[in-house]
Amino acid sequence: MSTPQVDPVKVLQKLASERVNNISPSGIRKFFDLLSSMEGVISLGVGEPDFVTPWHIREAAIYSIEKGYTMYTSNYGLSELRQKLAQYLKSRYRLSYAPNTELLITTGVSEGLDLALRALINPGDEVIMPDPCYVSYPACTVLAEGKPILVPTTEENNFVIKAKDIEAHITPRTKAILIGYPSNPTGAVMTKEQLTLVAEVARRHDLIVISDEIYERLVYNTEHTCFASLDGIKDKTVLLGGFSKAYAMTGWRTGYAAARPEIIEAMTKIHQYTMLCAPIVAQMAAIEALDRGDKEVEVMVKDYDRRRRVMVEGLRDIGLTCFEPKGAFYAFPSIKITGMTSEEFAQRLLLEEKVAVVPGPAFGQCGEGYIRCCYATSLEDIEEALRRMERFIKRHT
Ligand code: PLP
Q1: Cα of 109 to ligand 1 centre, how many Å?
Q2: Atom of ligand 1 minimally distant from the CA of 245
């Protein structure tokens, strides 16, 4: 007698909570599962620095282990790290945060985002965010039982969320605005003037703004404006930052949240039961990064900028229109001239030319017609990927 076939999707649906069934697996993950079984692929896919963490930061971590720093820290994180962060935010953005009550060390912006949403959102509350946006924004909102409200952004508007569009989406259920600039996936940066208009809307409608500034240091020929530093908006802002991108520390899992004491307290209530604290060794490394990591950040930013120009010019040379990214490490070219969907383009490019990119719709419907190309990879790989893409485009246009 043959055993009946088990459908894993159905089993998962039955086992998992409604909350989990309400989110789909990340479009990025799905794509990279496919890639892992292939050889000779150039990946412009994963959004991660190709540098290793600077040696003196690694050394500080090794030394901390040697000294026996292997225990829990305060739920809020090491006091010394919070003090250094307060100094950093003061000197960089003229922002004053009290280290003991207004800063929380998290396991990356990822945790900070989850905590902020769960701490602030009631079931059914609406959170306004740009489309396209980082994959975790809608998913974490759903997991917090909130409702993501996606506001379309376009290439013509430099993929920037406009204050008047935000205002048009506000309802009595709107609780927060969630923005992340420099943007993953577009590389867009918002100017101080544009952010000021968003701040005015938030103030007028009494909304919280969660501002994911993980890419604050990675900007090119432009300045980063820290949202919380705008006039009269600090108390309404949850600033999320981290070490992953600027210091090439993705694997260390350390970041921070800065906000008024009541919000930090609410977030810490969840953090103390779920994470307890960020890893002590990573916190030690983060102290060293803040103390002596600036030079390396500058060198890496210069290098990303060089690759950015090669990538953008290369994409334009092979006939794709490409908006100029001013931050992070992504280019977001349009592939509309090929007549393919983004998914089809990415799959065929991978199978025919062994170049991995992420289809734009992984980041929201407005990403249709675009692909995300990460340029945090070697110049040689970028140049070879461009040659392969040129062949592909020639064949398909
Ligand atoms: N926010 C954005 C916009 C990102 O692109 C990423 C990672 O790709 C994260 C947050 C996650 O940051 P962390 O490593 O600090 O959790």
Answers
A1: 6
A2: 14
Q: What's the CATH code of the domain at 391?
A: 3.90.1150.10
Does residue 87 share a domain with residue 180?
yes
Query: 152 pairs with which residues across the strands?
Result: 131
- Specify the pTM: 0.95
Are the C-beta atoms of residues 187 and 330 closer than 8 Å to each other?
yes
Measured from the CA of 112, which atom of ligand 1 is nearest?
Answer: 16
Task: Identify the CATH number of the domain in which residue 238 sits.
Answer: 3.40.640.10
Judge contact between 109 and 255, C-beta under 8 A: yes
Euclidean distance between CA atoms 390 and 388, whole angstroms: 5
Give 300-341 pLDDT, tens digit per residue: 999 999 999 999 999 999 999 999 999 999 999 999 999 999
Is 128 in contact with 210 (CB distance < 8 Å)? no
Yes or no: say if 82 and 283 are a contact pair by the CB < 8 Å rule.
no
Same domain (yes/no): 108, 232: yes
- Tell which of 275, 292, 309 closes a domain: 292
Q: Is the CB of 108 under 6 A from ligand 1?
A: yes
Query: Does residue 263 sit in helix, strand or coil?
Result: helix
Q: Do 286 and 192 have their domain in common? A: yes
Q: Give 386 Cα–ligand 1 centroid separation in angstroms.
A: 26
Taking only the tens place, the pLDDT of each residue in 46-58 is: 888 899 999 999 9
- State which residues form the domain around 268: 69-292
Residues 6+ apart with CB under 8 A from 203: 232, 233, 236
Look at residues 241, 263, 292 and tell me which one is the last residue of a structural domain.
292
If you take atom 8 of ligand 1, which residue's CA is the nearest one? 47
Residues 143 and 264 in one domain: yes
Residues 81 and 150 reside in one and the same domain: yes
- Secondary structure of 14-68 as H, E, C letters: HHCCHHHHCCCCCHHHHHHHHHCCCCCCEECCCCCCCCCCCHHHHHHHHHHHHCC
